[in-house]
Each structure stands twice: as structure tokens, then as C-alpha cells.
Amino acid sequence: TPAFARARLAMVGALAVVCLIGLSHREAEARKDDAAFHAELLDRNPSHVRAMVRHAESLRLTSARYREESMIMRADDAERDYVLARAEEALQQADRWSARAVRHELGRHDAEAWRVRGFVLIELNRSAKALRALERSRDLDPALKQAPESLRTTYSPDRVRAAADMYAGIARAREALGDRGRAADAYLMASRLAPTDVRLMYRAGLALCRVNRYGEGLAMLLEARRLARDESLRKDIDEAIRSARKSAREIARRLIAQGHAAKADGKMRKAVTFYEQALEVNPASVEAWSFAGWLRGHWFGNYEKAEANFRKAESLLAKGEIPKSDPRWERI
């Protein structure tokens, strides 16, 4: 009937529109890092915020590629200055487009726009503004209110990776501003979001060690060493582990000496605090475990915890194959 024919025609038309929309979306997704594609979009619609954001990000990545290329060129290579100039030009364009995006009425409330703006500002060494932009992005993204483990199971790998990169950016900005403590926390969050990223794990371990959180930092570095496949990176991690262990032992020795002095003055609770601080810095200190155990049992009557401390000291001596003639065995 005519009515049936009209209904069928309308259905076919609707399906065609859906297919065209699907194709355009797939094309846009496939070309999301294509600077020329987003430049075309912006020519057609200068207020297209998503195009501004992705154009800025593609320009930032283009700048980074030029800089990487310049690093493998000889200093006297005539082409090197040209490559560096192209890198700077792309970064300045990224600065303009990312700034324009976050000034837009829609961009002001867009987490991705602020994230890209923050990354561009980091490359421009404008750390304070970069930190504000990245924290604005974090606050606008409801996903980041979840624990990292929950976020990894709920969202796509690309979304989780973007969150990890954002926290790494916050860490870089805080480091540049001298806020090492909160930089270490941000690196730790980034590493929890991307637990297989060895380089991120390495940076987190270094950051933790710089603020004397050697227990956490060494654990992170050792895990990075286990997962690393790149030989050059493994050598860097090995050197970081050696340096961290040496620093941890030195700091722990000073804290143990302070504990001994407090114990000699009859300040037993203060002495235990020093030994505990030594263990936070160097969990492999047999001396700190044994003296903390002795005070906890002999002075404070906490025999269960004292025994656990002694057992830990014994296990460290046994693991290190320390001979029974060593006085540390007798002390335990």
C-alpha cells in the first residue's frame, strides 16, 4: 500500500543517515591526531571546541617529534636549526589553540581541553599555570574521583591512560615548582593507573626516594627493574637502586644513632620513634628491627610486636647468609 511504501522509504532513509553518521564518527576517530584534519574542521567551524583541543594536542605532539628528531642530529648539522624552529612554531600554535579552547564557553568546562592546555604549558616551562590547568582538568573529570583500581576496571584503556598522563603532568609541574612531596604522590597515583608503564614506575620510584620515602621508592624501582626490557633503561634503574640503597643506609644510621642517644637519656618512647623512622627509610636495617623489638618488649611489654620485630631481624640475617658468629645474632 502507499502508506507501507512511505514507511519503508522513511526507514531506509533513517538507516542511511545512521550509517553516514557512523562512518563520519569512525573517520574522525581515525584522524583524531591529524593536524590537517582538525585544521579543516576549524576552517568550516571556527568554534568547534573539540577540534581546537585535538588540533592543539596534535601540534604539541608534532613539536615533540621534531625535538626528538633534533636530539639525534649533530650540533653542527645545518638542518638541526630548521627542525628546532619547526618544533617551536608547532608549540606556539598549540599554545594559541589550547588557550582559545579553554576560553570558549564550552571549553571552560571541558576536562580534556584543560588537560591539553596543561601539557602545552608544561612544554613551554610555565609550570605554575600548567599545574592550575591540570588540576582544573582533574576536578572536572568525575572518573578521577574513583580509586585507581576501580577506574581501571570501569573505563577504557585510553581513558585510564589519559588519566595517568594527567597525574604525571601534575607531578612534573610540582617538581618544577619545588614541591617534591606532592610530586611524589602524583607520580605514585599515575603509576597505580598505569601499573605496566616501566618508565613511569621508574620516575615514581626516583621521586619517592628524593623525599626520603625509600621503602616505597625502592619497592617501585625494584619492580621497574623486574619489568624493564630496554637495556639502557635497566642500567639507569640499577644505578638508581644502588644510589637509593646507599642513601637509605646512611639516613637510617643517623636515625639509629639518635635512637641510641635518646635511649641513653632514658627517653624510651622517643628512641622507639627514631628506630621506626629508620625502618621507614631502610626496612632492611637489622639493627633498627632488633633495638625496636628490645624496647617494645623490655620497656613497654608489647611482647607480640617485639617478637615480630626479632623474627624480621632474624629473617634478614638469614637471607643475607650472615654467619652465626656475627654479634647481631647474639643481640637478637
Describe the structure.
Mean pLDDT is 83; it is low at 12-33. The chain has 16 helices and no strands. Helix content is 80%, strand content 0%. Helix 3 (49-71) packs antiparallel against helix 4 and helix 12 runs antiparallel to helix 13. With 332 residues, it is mostly helical.
Helix/strand layout:
Blueprint: H1 2-30, H2 35-44, H3 49-71, H4 78-103, H5 111-123, H6 127-140, H7 148-154, H8 157-176, H9 180-193, H10 198-210, H11 214-227, H12 231-264, H13 268-281, H14 286-298, H15 303-319, H16 327-331
Observed structural traits:
about 0% strand; elongated
Quick structural gist:
The chain has 332 residues and is an all-alpha fold. It has 16 helices and no strands. The longest helix has 34 residues.
Level of helix content? over 70%
- Determine the mean pLDDT: 83
Distance between the termini: 98 Å
Shape: elongated
Briefly note the structural class of the backbone: mainly alpha
Order of helix and strand elements from N to C terminus:
HHHHHHHHHHHHHHHH
Total number of strands: 0
Number of helices: 16
Strand content: under 5%
Radius of gyration: 28 Å
Main sheet record = none
